[in-house]
Specification:
Chain A: Pfam families: ACT_8. The complex is a heterodimer of chains A (142) and B (433). Chain A is an alpha+beta fold. Chain A is built from four helices and six strands. Chain A has a six-stranded antiparallel sheet, sandwiched between helices. In chain B, the strands form six sheets. Chain B has a six-stranded mixed sheet, sandwiched between helices. Classes of the chains: A alpha+beta (142), B alpha/beta (433).
């Protein structure tokens, strides 16, 4: 039950210099892979590009074949009310349950707002959010 | 001529050569009798102590290399009884194993004697206050210079390296007149002093210094002398010889290699043949009087020339010119010798990164910086930045431990580092002297 709400995010190691994002995005474009959401985390000299895509397995293979260091990471996507307090609702549920957020990013599109989370106890987080009446993105059909 | 040891320093050339022959003969007989290593090497070469019938015959002896020290780690090449040793120093090796050098009481005395002659030849003596800003400890620089400076009667201020503002304060307060350190550290000190509002030229008593452990140039000397208002002398040595051991004299026309302590040859690295004066080759030294760790025809790896003719100072001993580079890929980072093979060896022990690497050496202000680029391995790649930072810091920590020099690590994308292009691409040295 919980597992079907765990989404596979692809994470790509990238040097922090011009053209690296273009190389990654170009590769996904050529493979006709759509990106729902993405973020860049940066550190000293390097970064990690994180993306939710429609075909994660294909994206992983495509980028690996091009020489990128790629991994899958389990994340969850929580639908939020696109109005004041939307984030607060979800953050409170997780905080009350003692679940720590390692990183997060969000998008707001035509079907509402979604918060993407990497948490330390992912199955527990899914249970807690569902129990409070929250809605989660489902893993794209394989 | 103001000499520390007039009889030796001004010895007529022929007499000096006869002395060198007697010392070489004695050395070869001794190591043949006492050392399994030398006996085996000489047998392989087909040479016996009796074959040394003139000074030129030393060329019949086999060469020694740094790898001989590594292969016989830690003390397989020592020829003095353990309890005759009064000190060890340790320097980096080419791979995981460091190089251990040992000294008898006499070895320390000869080392100090050698420096005392050099320091005196530049006018240093009683009444001088000598700040030793070489590192003290396993590195030979600090203690070596310290003993030489004490021997000539100078007052030693053993500041070692670092805490530069305090060094400048002490230089002023204790009226320091002489200093020894790497040339780059001196420049750093000069810059720090200026930030403190202190001009070394106008606000201190510093009048001369000995700079070495890393290559520098005549241009750098001119800049230092003009900027800091001092006389800047070259000092040379490696731990295998004892440590920093030989200096220029006041003429600044090459480094005097005291012939009673060391026999110099300049060897063509390609043919192993001895080269005449004036031609550049690999410095090869036989330490004629070392007891604990004699080095015979030791190929140091530094490229230089033998200077022709006698020095205007009147000293008769051979002189070598400025160091022109290395025969191998050894780097000198803030005075510390670093071999790319040490980096490779260390990385092989860290599974989180691949075995490929690139070293970028640069100079920020006056100080050398060393950057090592590595690739994160597939297994270790995490999408959490904190995990990647731990890998970066782990590699930095391990490299610092292995090299004795601070290193910054950069994580790069897989496949971007040079693979098969050979050593030249593995090291990018952006420093200019």
């Amino acid at each position: 039950m919980e597992k079907s709400y765990i989404v596979k995010q692809i994470s790509i190691f990238s040097e922090n210099r011009p053209g690296r994002l273009a190389a990654i995005a170009g590769a996904l474009r050529d493979a006709k892979i759509n990106i729902f959401a993405f973020s860049i985390a940066e550190a000293n000299g390097f970064g990690v590009v994180r993306a939710l895509v429609d075909r994660p397995e294909d994206a992983h293979r495509t980028l690996t074949d091009l020489g990128f260091r790629v991994s899958f990471t389990d994340v969850i996507g929580v639908k939020m009310r696109d109005e004041p307090g939307g984030l607060s609702d979800i953050a409170s549920v997780l905080g009350d349950a003692g679940i720590n957020v390692e990183y997060a990013y969000a998008y707001s599109g035509k079907d509402g707002a979604v918060l993407i989370l990497r948490v330390d106890q992912v199955e527990d987080a899914v249970r807690q959010i569902l129990a409070c009446g929250g809605e989660l993105l489902a893993e794209p059909s394989r | 001529m103001d000499c520390w040891n007039r009889d030796i320093e001004g010895m007529p050339t022929e007499e000096l050569r006869r002395l060198q022959y007697r010392l070489a003969k004695r050395l070869v007989s001794r190591v043949y009798e006492t050392s399994e290593f030398y006996r085996r090497r000489m047998k392989e070469q087909g040479v016996r102590p009796d074959d040394i019938g003139s000074l030129e015959d030393v060329r019949k002896l086999p060469f020694m290399y740094k790898r001989d020290l590594r292969d016989n780690y830690p003390d397989g090449l020592f020829t003095a009884p353990r309890d005759e040793l009064i000190r060890y120093h340790v320097s980096s090796g080419t791979t995981g194993k460091p190089t251990v050098v040992g000294y008898t009481k006499r070895d320390i005395e000869n080392w100090s004697e050698s420096l005392a002659r050099g320091f005196s030849s530049c006018g240093l003596g009683k009444g001088d206050v000598f700040q030793v800003s070489y590192g003290y400890g396993l590195f030979t620089g600090g203690l070596g210079v310290h003993y030489g400076a004490e021997k000539v009667g100078a007052t030693v201020l053993p500041t070692s390296v670092g805490n530069t503002e305090r060094q400048v304060e002490l230089m002023q307060d204790l009226h320091v007149t002489a200093i020894a350190c790497t040339p780059s550290y001196l420049i750093h000190m000069g810059e720090v002093a200026e930030k403190m509002g202190v001009s070394i030229k106008n606000d201190t008593d510093l009048r001369l210094g000995f700079f070495g452990a890393e290559p520098w140039s005549e241009q750098m000397r001119n800049r230092i002398e003009e900027w800091l208002g001092i006389r800047a002398y070259d000092i040379y040595g490696t731990s295998e010889l004892s440590g920093p051991m030989f200096t220029e004299c006041a003429e600044q026309k090459g480094i005097h290699i005291w012939g009673d302590l060391a026999l110099v040859e300049i060897v063509d690295p390609a043919t192993d043949e001895a080269l005449p004066a004036g031609e550049q080759g690999e410095l090869t030294i036989t330490m004629l009087q070392k007891e604990a760790l004699p080095m015979i025809r030791y190929r140091i790896g530094d490229l230089t020339t033998l200077e022709e003719g006698a020095c205007a100072c009147g000293r008769t001993h051979p002189r070598i010119g400025r160091l022109r580079g290395r025969v191998d890929d050894m780097l000198i980072i803030r005075g510390i010798n670093v071999f790319p093979s040490q980096v490779e060896h260390t990385l092989l022990e860290i599974p989180q990164v691949g075995k490929h690497f690139q070293i970028v050496v640069d100079r920020k202000g006056a100080l050398d910086t060393m950057l090592v680029r590595v690739e994160v391995s597939e297994e270790a790649f995490s999408d959490k930045i904190t995990d990647l930072m731990v890998i970066k810091r782990t590699v930095e920590h391990r490299l610092r431990g292995a090299l004795n020099v601070g290193v910054e690590v950069e994580l790069v994308e897989p496949g971007t580092l040079p693979r098969f292009e050979g050593k030249s691409k593995k090291v990018i040295d952006r420093r200019s002297l």
